[in-house]
Amino acid sequence: MDRENPLIARLAAGLQPVRPQQSRTGWMSLALAVLATGIIVHLLFGLQPVTILRSAGRWFVLGELLLAGLGLAAAFATIRMAWPERAGRPGAFWVVCLASLAPLSALALLAIPGAHPSAAAGVDGHWQCAAMGTASAALVAGVLVRWLRRGAPASPTRAGLYAGIASGALGSAVYGLSCPLGDFHHWTLWHFVPVLACALAGRVLLPRWLRW
Fold it and tell me: Exposure of 125 by Cβ count < 10 A (0-12 exposed, 13-18 middle, 19+ buried)?
C-alpha cells in the first residue's frame, strides 16, 4: 500500500520546491527600484518637480497621478500573482481600463482638424519622453520579473502583462518629473507610450520566463 507510484515519481522528479514569499519583501524591492530609478534620472536629466509644476500646471499633476496610480495598481496585482491560488482577474483590470481613457481622449482630440497637431509629431522632446520613459522601466521590470520567478504564478501570460504595465507606468512617472512639457496631448500620449510598449513586451516575452 505504501509503494511509490512510478508515474507520480516520474512527474515530480524535475520539480523544485517554491519558497513562500512575503508581500512586504516584494513592496520593499519595488520601492528600492523606484528610488534607484529616480536617482539615475536625477543624475542624468535632473528632477525638478516644483519648477515643472509651476510651468506645466495641472496636466503635469494629472499625468503623474494617473501613471503612479496605474503603476501601483498593476504592481499590486503582479506581486499577488506570485501565489498560484491568486490567478483570478485582479482589481487592477479596472484601473487599466480607466487609465486608458486618457490616451484615447487625446487621440480623439487629435482627430479634430487643427487641434494641436504638433503633439502628434516627433518634435519638441515627444519621442525623447517616450524613449526615456521606457528605458526608465528597466529596474522595476527586473525586480518584478525576479519576484515572479521566485514564486509560482498560475497565469504567466497575465502576470507578464501586469508586470509590463507596472514597470512602464512607474518608469514613465519617475522620468516625468524631469519633463518640462506640460500640455494635455503630450502627457496623455507620449508619457503613456512606455506603458503600452512595456505591456506588449511583458505579454509577449515574459511568459516563457515565468513558467514553472
Answer: middle
Determine contact, residues 173/131, Cβ cutoff 8 Å: no
Are the beta carbons of 146 and 166 closer than 8 angstroms?
Answer: no
C-alpha closest to that of 81 among 165, 137, 14:
165
Q: What's this model's pTM, rounded to 2 decimal places?
A: 0.81
- pLDDT less than 70: residues of the chain: 1-5, 7-20, 50-57, 85-89, 109-125, 212
Q: Can you give the three-state secondary structure of 99-115, one letter per residue?
A: HCHHHHHHHHHHCCCCC
Q: Which pLDDT value is given to residue 122?
A: 47
- Distance between CA atoms of 31 and 62, rounded to whole angstroms? 22
Alpha-carbon Rg for the chain, nearest whole angstrom, is 20
Q: Are 157 and 203 in contact (CB under 8 A)?
A: yes
The SS3 of residue 4 is: coil
Phi-psi region of 121 (alpha: psi -120 to 50; beta: other; left: phi over 0): beta
The rounded distance, in Å, linking the Cα atoms of 177 and 163 is 22
For 57-68, write each residue's pLDDT tens digit.
677 888 888 899
Q: Which of 206, 23, 203 is nearest to 96 (CA)?
A: 203
Q: Which three cell numbers stand for residue 47?
A: 528632477
